[in-house]
UniProtKB/TrEMBL annotation:
Keyword Protease set for record: no
List of catalytic residues: 13 (nucleophile), 15 (proton donor)
Protein name, as recorded: HAD family hydrolase
Positions that bind Mg(2+): 13, 15, 209
Keywords assigned by UniProt, alphabetized: Carbohydrate metabolism, Hydrolase, Magnesium, Metal-binding
Family matches, as SUPFAM superfamilies: HAD-like
Cofactor binding notes: Divalent metal ions. Mg(2+) is the most effective.
Length: 259
């Protein structure tokens, strides 16, 4: 770590790092303010594809956290960019919310259930059996299978919720086709985010609360990684993985002085 270049750009996960169950984590406001004041490039990342960047800006602002929409990078935005690069002007059958459908519309995709190029699975509040059945049949008919992220569960105030990865497993069991996951830990999402803010991996850091997505994605993208223990990962969990973060801290408050 002594040979690493100074950190000039920051990427941070949202849930478990900046907020927990709709409440800001102590230190998050100070960290974001110092980032804004420093003028250093930064992004807040989330694998959740439900909300648009503008939605998340408004939700965070209501919690007292000021993150401009242009500093928010979601798995929905990463998925739309990936598809636009791979097959511009394509078509897709989408299971998801406004965050995903808006991102796809903005890159010129047509949303249809008639011979789509792709079936795209994202996060949604209500997974419809009818929609999943349609997805299975379209994939069997040749549509390519994409999912915004591999998270099996998501957080809520009531406890864990089944998320995109769980539903993707159901569709895979019915079709024999595994999806291509765009979101973390795919380094594609990280590199696209770095490109969006003009940052370089060797001078960037990733902060997250999950070893299997945040830390792994940062590691594979060539960034310095910080694990915070304010989310899902507990200290005893770290040694279970064959890789390690650059540094482990209690919370985002411990990183304010690094900016």
């Amino acid at each position: 770590m002594a040979d690493r270049k100074p950190i000039e750009s920051w990427l941070t996960d949202m849930d478990g790092v900046l907020i927990h169950e709709g409440v800001p984590i102590p230190g998050a406001e100070d960290f974001l303010k110092k980032l804004r004041d420093s003028g250093r490039p930064f992004l807040v990342l989330t694998n959740n594809s439900i909300y648009t960047a503008r939605d998340l800006h408004a939700r965070l602002r209501r919690m007292g956290l000021d993150v401009p929409a242009e500093n928010i990078w979601t798995s929905a935005l990463a998925t739309a960019q990936f598809l636009n690069d791979q097959r511009p002007g394509g078509s897709a059958y989408v299971i998801g919310e406004a965050g995903l459908t808006t991102a796809l519309h903005e890159v010129g995709y047509v949303l249809t259930d008639h011979e789509p190029d792709f079936v795209i699975l994202g996060e949604t509040r209500t997974y419809s059996f009818e929609a999943m059945t349609k997805a299975v049949r379209l994939i069997n008919d040749g549509a390519r299978f994409i999912a915004t992220n591999p998270d099996n569960v998501g957080p809520s105030t009531e406890g864990a919720l089944p998320a995109t990865g769980s539903v993707a497993a159901l569709i895979t069991a019915a079709t024999g086709r595994k999806p291509y996951f765009v979101g973390k830990p795919n380094p594609l999402m990280m590199r696209a985010g770095l490109n969006a803010i003009g940052a370089h991996s060797e001078t960037s850091a990733m902060i997250g609360d999950r070893m299997d997505t945040d830390v792994l994605a940062g590691l594979e993208a060539g960034m310095r990684t910080f694990l915070v223990l304010s989310g899902v990962t507990q200290p005893q969990d770290v040694d279970r993985y064959p890789f390690r973060p650059s540094q482990t801290v209690d919370s985002i408050a411990d990183l304010v002085d690094l900016i």
